Amino acid sequence: MTKGITNKEPDPEIVYADIFHHPHWQSPTRPHMSLYDRAAQFAPFAALTGYEDMVNEEARRIEKVTDISEKKSSFSDF
Prior knowledge:
mainly alpha
């Protein structure tokens, strides 16, 4: 029987002997999920869609406000 990586861990076949050779449980009420559908659950997704546009818009608005305040301060010098 095989042991763990360092030979200090207990043999998994002994530790899990009560469940090791049981068949894989399948729900009687739900159909088996295809590998395609299962892979889709772990596929990357765009959680932050539109975030970059929002940040760019806010930066544009802040630049506009900064430009206006700079113009006001330069006019007050006269």
